[in-house]
Specification:
The complex is a heterodimer of chains A (about 55) and B (about 210).
Chain A: E1 9-12, H1 23-34, H2 41-44
Chain B: H1 11-28, H2 34-48, H3 53-64, H4 76-83, E1 88-93, H5 97-107, E2 115-118, H6 119-122, H7 129-143, E3 150-154, H8 157-166, E4 170-174, E5 192-194, H9 197-206
Parallel strand pairs in B: 1-2, 3-4, 4-5
The chains are: A alpha+beta (about 55), B mainly alpha (about 210).
Amino acid sequence: MTKLKAFRCLVFDVYGTLIVSDLDQSLIQLALLTNQFPLLDPFLANSKGLGNRTL
Amino acid sequence: MLKDAPKAISRAQALSEFTVVETTIQEENPTLIYPDVLATAYGFLATEFSVDRDLAANEAKIFGGSVGKWQPFPDTVSALAVLSKHFKLVVLSNVDQGSFSHTRKLLEKGFTFDMVCTAQDIGSYKPDIRNFEYVLKSVKEKFGIEREEVLVTAQSLSHDHVPANKLGLGSAWIDREGAHVGVDETLATFTFRYRTLGELAAAVEKE
């Protein structure tokens, strides 16, 4: 079985792996900041804030 | 506000369509920096969903500039500190250096990344194989690390594990709960699978 310590270097993706890159979570934050986010209102209402995306 | 958005869209639909638009923009404009990719993608979606153009343009700009404010998962910072004791830690991201300069301040608590490679540096976006070849060449030159000693550690199977498979690299899938994009297990194989980075760090400490 392969051991993790057999590796010397971890190459990370960041957004979605280390950072909550979730589109709807970000836009919820922006919606609060701008108080005007008509595009996303319909799905923000149903959002659980867990929609990770990777960058 | 709902009156301004004639088409009701679901969360899944919005995320899915955003990803399609974003990927197309990245493929057609590989040197466009990420905040501009986000803003452009938002503009396309706003048009598709019949949002007022002037209002959408303002929102698109704000959205594009938001990347540096996105927050770490609860397990991330402590896990990175543990992992930094055992491995070189390298970032390979589709974001730009400017945005990542803000993000790294949120992550580097008691350690610093050994190398940061962005799409802006490389001139293409993941899952382009060139991004991985770039980082493999860089860690070999800087640290003398061979490709078989590199473990790609990522959530997205489509953006990271597929190209890792093509290059024969080891990979750890951070299978975050609630992830929506890049989670189709038929897309790629992986060497390890953990629900969080904290689980990976704990597994390293146990070896």
